[in-house]
Amino acid sequence: MTGTGPVTVSPATLRKLELAAGDLAAACLVAMEEHQPWFARLPADQRAGVLLVTQTGVANFVAWLGERGASIRLTAEAFRIAPRDLARRLSLRQTVDLVRIATDVFERHLPPLAADEAERHALVEAVLRFGREIAFAAATVYAGAAETRGAWDARLEALVVDAVVRGPHVDGGTEDALVSRAAALGWDPGSAVRAIVGTPAPGAPAELLGELRREVAHAGRSVLIGVQGNRLILLLSEPPERDPKQSSPGDVGRAEIGKLVDGFGPGPVVIGPVAADLTAAHSSARDALAGLRAAPGWPAAPRPVAADDLLPERALAGDGVAHRKLVESVAVPLDAAGGGLLHTLATYLEGGGALEACARALFVHPNTVRYRLRRVSDLTGRNPADPRDALVLRTALVAARLGIDRGPADTP
């Protein structure tokens, strides 16, 4: 036997090997049942598939021995003729275990068929070499199957993210189709979800996205990722114990999402509000993308920033949803509370935030102004004395005066 070519085996020995092929394949199956308890529990069709692969492997081995000077090129054929779902039903580890068992059976049964000691030694080496090539062929088949599944999953994931961004009703899509596709990717349809958007990282985005997925899995969450041009969109499931109704859009900071922000490129990262489930996630993605477009209006914004913390900038950019949220969160509750709260707030803000001047303009005591401003803070969650909150409150007052209802003119 040379270092690269096949061993030299006599025609008589080859004939013996051909006649023993059936018994050899059967002996392999018996050994597999003895050494791997799970093998005996396989359905009949899958056991038949393994038998077919084994028989083909034996035939290929004999053919290879008979081709002087030929390289091993038939090993993958043993797996190509197997049923298509066999690679999905058996793990790579299980397949390697079966190959190892088959190789051991070959080592026990083939050498006695040799005509002399030299031929016996050559058969032992040939079995080891052929077993190695079979294992490599199996790994290649599984790698190809994994790549195919990965490519399919990537396309399916892109479709799900696109459906969420555009709305499941677009192009005749249905919520059932959205849920079905997400479930095929391992997503829990009942999980609350929020969108996180930013720009893709330059350089090696695949590696960064892989690290991002590992971080999410380590946190016990699920994620769907879509790269659409110059924007990276994450749909992140919320922990089961979190109640979406009790979760404020602004309560998610870097500490909660851990290292997820590191998977984004430079620039703002915007977090949308919590949606009850995937079918309602369009609103979270819409708000997050609107915030991403408006984020340059607040250069000092934290990273990440909640979409609802960018309401003034979003409203100025023409976001009708932000306009309504400002009115509903500020003007509506203050007007409903009465007691001059809305007028007091307007006077205070438009007077430059001077407490005494506001009191004089309203002909009330400064303590009355203090009390009313505290009530404003209680009802809106915004402190009129804080510069950023003052901008939000004043923008809300202007929006209420304009009375504009742009509708959902917020196509992401």
From TrEMBL:
One Pfam family named in its UniProt record: HTH_30
Domain PucR C-terminal helix-turn-helix: 341-398
Every CdaR GGDEF-like domain range: 172-294
Superkingdom classification of source: Bacteria
Gene3D superfamilies membership: PucR C-terminal helix-turn-helix domain
Record-linked PANTHER family: CARBOHYDRATE DIACID REGULATOR (PTHR33744), PUCR FAMILY TRANSCRIPTIONAL REGULATOR (PTHR33744:SF7)
Similarity comment: family membership: Belongs to the CdaR family.
Protein name: PucR family transcriptional regulator
